[in-house]
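for the record, two folds in this file. i put them one after another cuz i was lazy. first one right below, seq on top, structure tokens after. the second one comes after a little note so u can tell where it starts
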Amino acid sequence: MSFSNAKAYLETKGLADRIKVFSESSATVELAAKALGCQAKQIAKTMTFFVAGEPIMIVCAGNVKVDNPKYKAYFHEKAKMIPFAEVEACSGHAVGGVCPFGIKPGVKVYLDVSLKENEIVYPAAGDEHSAVELSIKELEDCVEITDWVDVCKEIV
């Protein structure tokens, strides 16, 4: 169901032809980069958190992780990831395919500035065997974002 929701959403934006489907898993940054033949930083990973009890998504480059002090400074609370078992119910997508396309109403989406180091990024497309190729501008234009944030740091 998640893939069909993401695909239907991308069709409304004229971007469904950009979806890439793999026989192998693309559920992690490493697997997605291997399947696509790109760098980890080009994978646009989507992480889910609760803020004030409500689900949010942060889409960031694959080579970064949330920086707790930056996160707390922006959201005014500690980072609390949505437990794996609740991610699909809260976002509309299962772990491994979480993306900002075809999501549940009310989920706020934030894009992290780490994405801006890339011209092209590859977010998941609703399941663990897909991704969609987008420019940063296309991602920004096709997703109803709440804000650009700076809440991540490079993984060393």
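(here's the note) second protein begins now
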Amino acid sequence: MRSEFVQSLARGLDVIQAFGPDRPELTISEVAKHTGLTRAVARRFLLTLTELGHVETDGRRFRLRPKVLDLGYAYLSSQPWWQVAQPRLEAAAATLRESCSVAMLDGTDIVYVARVPATRIMTINLNIGTRLPAHATSLGRVILAALEESALCDYFAMADRTVFTKRTITSEAELRVACAQVAEQGYSLVDQELENGLRSLAVPLRNRVGKVIAAINVGTHAARTTKAEMLQQFLPVLRNTADAICRDMNR
């Protein structure tokens, strides 16, 4: 497989990924530093991306252009559930008056692929494309709970299980117990493990053959909603939303 690897394509993607929230504009030297490329190679990639319309420059500094979103949209639009998920997610957020999201597992992180914000309950600004560690999120726990044993072992071998609060579960043994419980009960309730004050509840999103392909969740502030209230009031709405998305997908 390595003989088929196209290094130039990989380098071009590295250049695009050098930009981010903390680095909206970069010089050639800065791109070279963040990608490990030589300055000459970084310059060629930046000029190529500029010619293709993915990057723009004032002659010294470079920044991404909206066209780069086409790369991510191509993925989302290729997912059979994505176009039907958003209106269902909006309805759930309106009913619960809280933020609702859909995420998928990518490596050891979850990636937000749909989101309807209601109130700002986190210091992290969550948008489509935001990555968070799977172990400390309800979305991640739901997806991890559905993995086959070999895939779960691979996850534990790779994951950097960061401690975010005093409640964060990081040990493999404890996470395995938590995932087993999630698999049995069909939902994950994570209480202030990612951020103090944040509680989140998630359920699986399944395809037509019952395989978990993503997870849908709702987040709330711990001072506003108890865990019991989340299970009584939020869980039925989330489950109905996930079922509706699955039905819409299979029409």
